[in-house]
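Box S1 | Example of a co-folding query
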Amino acid sequence: MHKFETICVVGLGYIGLPTAAVFAKSGVQVIGVDTNEKAVRTINSGKAHIVEVDLDGLLQGVVANGSLKAQTTPTEADAFIIAVPTPFKDGFSPDLSYVEAATRSIAPYVRNGNLIVLESTVPPGATDKMVAWLEEERPDLKGMCGRSYHAAHCPERVLPGRVLIELVQNDRIIGGITEECADRAEALYEIFVKGNCYRTNARTAEMAKLSENAFRDVNIAFANELSLIADKLDIDVWELISLANKHPRVNILQPGPGVGGHCIAVDPWFIVDAAPEQARLIRTSREVNDNKPAVVIEKVKRATNRFKEPTVACFGLAFKADIDDLRSSPALEITKRLAEELDCNLIAVEPNIDELPASLSDKGITLTTTEDAMETADILVLLVDHKPFKRIAPVKLAEKVVIDTRGIWR
Ligand code: SAJ
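Box S1 (continued) | Returned holo structure for SAJ
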């Protein structure tokens, strides 16, 4: 069977860049492609333009020995991997424009025997669309998928902060357009994946990835709904959940200020869009989780009524613990809306960043240290369970009004 000597990875973001680096480390010649020229320059200087544990060190090595090179346009290769964003448009319908642009951009370079893998999280049927876009650009390939070239959907399922470990260790779903496509894709991932490769068709693979994230979203929504019920009934939700979880078959997740990130808060909408009448629980869960920031804001507003000119400190801005990623973060949204809706001094503590995003600094919010916030704030709003916040002494917290959305300061 034909070997993969060169791979072209299109999209060098949170998934594409680590994937490119891991292939390069495994002895494959990798060309990484991104339209962002600044990112390309940074990568070619041996550094990552995103933060991920151990990625800088890995990149430095594979760029220095020439096995990974970034550029702004695709080139010929034995396999192409598309790992571009799939956000949603207004009305929560999936936006496949990046996948379409990436597919059309590689079309001129596809040769006999090539494999094209779609790794981006996509709605059911998107891999078929990718094939159609490719064949539109290349009429000579019409109807040849599974014969003169191969296509598959192999979704990633790595957790930010553990990407380099999980890329290698996790099991992988291989969704071929045909059996032969699945054979080729499995051979590609066997280069570095130590987990099992499970083969299926492309549509099931697409839906499997969406179902994993929808499962988590529904379960977080259950915990978030319990937190509302517990508030109403004057019960400590964290004690409640920890007791319920003593049951051998119960494992309730943790409530919080809402669900953030670019996966769990997005992917369930792709299922709702594909089957709106059937996906009732999935839609309601999204609504429950998206409503949580408003609940937190109301609580803070009520607390400020007790003061004349209170100083409110928001602890954490990232979308989850111990990362620097502020994208689609409920903590960021809450802090921003508090600045817009409250008449108070607002300060923010986020140990993982050096500078506030303009959307917050423009509103007069200042970034400060935990110590300063503990000294100056009247109201503490805990939004992210970062490790340093867990170390704050309970006696210090006892002097303040505390709104703890993560249950670490109980
Ligand atoms: N969250 C809670 N309560 C919990 C768990 C999480 O409120 O008990 C919140 C977090 O604070 C965060 C959001 O949910 O705001 C999402 O965080 P996460 O750690 O659950 O997930 P992500 O978005 O970092 O990564 C997920 C993972 N999917 C699953 O665990 C099913 C990861 O494996 C996927 O690869 C990733 O989405 C992706 O790229 O799709």
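The chain has two domains: 6-195, 235-404. Residues 121, 156-160, 212-213, 216, 220, 253-254, 256, 259-261, 263-264, 319-320 surround SAJ (CB under 6 Å).
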